[in-house]
Design brief:
Elements: H1 3-22, E1 27-35, E2 38-45, H2 49-55, H3 57-63, H4 65-68, H5 70-73, E3 95-97, E4 102-105, E5 121-122, E6 127-133, E7 136-141, E8 146-151, E9 157-159, E10 164-168
Antiparallel strand pairs: 1-2, 3-10, 4-6, 4-9, 5-8, 6-7, 8-10
Length: about 170
């Protein structure tokens, strides 16, 4: 590979990085055929701030466990069982956690009936909610059959990987 080819590749990668910074994308991957036996396969990814914010709330939760634990559950718990004082819902054996970073929606579209409500009996694999990640709607299925006892988020709530969403008993 000549110095000229190397410089062109570096400029190409830098331009991809610029596109990534200017857009709402998390990753760009390009494979270009430059000749019969000459290809370039480039993947440029961006580290998002949510990765860093995953670490930031943890010390606050440790410093003020009484204030931090009920806060996420409070907005979505008017229909939930208020007598449950078991503590952190993430430790509950029936918790359904978010498998990805995104925005959680309880209904298939705005104004529609929710997929499930507190008290509903669900079967394994039934859609409980959707998480939108990078403009893709991802169905979140029930990992087990049971009764929905708590919904821990509001419709349109931003979630991170591992965020408790619901409890099925």
């Amino acid at each position: 590979m000549s110095k000229k080819d190397q410089d062109a590749d570096v400029k190409f990668i830098q331009s991809l990085a610029s596109v990534l910074n200017e857009s709402d994308l998390a990753e760009i991957r390009v494979k270009r055929e430059l000749g019969e036996n000459n290809t370039i396969d480039v993947r440029v990814t961006r580290a998002f701030a949510p990765v860093a914010t995953t670490v930031a709330p943890a010390p606050a939760a440790i410093a003020t466990p009484a204030a931090a634990a009920p806060a996420p559950a409070a907005p979505a718990s008017p229909t939930a069982d208020a007598s449950d004082t078991s503590g952190d819902p993430a430790n509950h054996p029936g918790v359904v956690s978010s498998p990805m970073v995104g925005t959680a929606y309880l209904a298939p579209e705005p104004g529609a009936a929710p997929f499930v409500t507190v008290g509903d009996t669900v079967s394994e694999g039934q859609t409980l909610l959707i998480v939108e990640a990078m403009k893709t709607m991802n169905n979140i299925p029930a990992p087990q059959a049971g009764k929905v006892t708590r919904i821990l988020i509001d419709d349109g709530t931003p979630v991170e990987f591992g965020t408790p969403l619901m409890i099925i008993e």
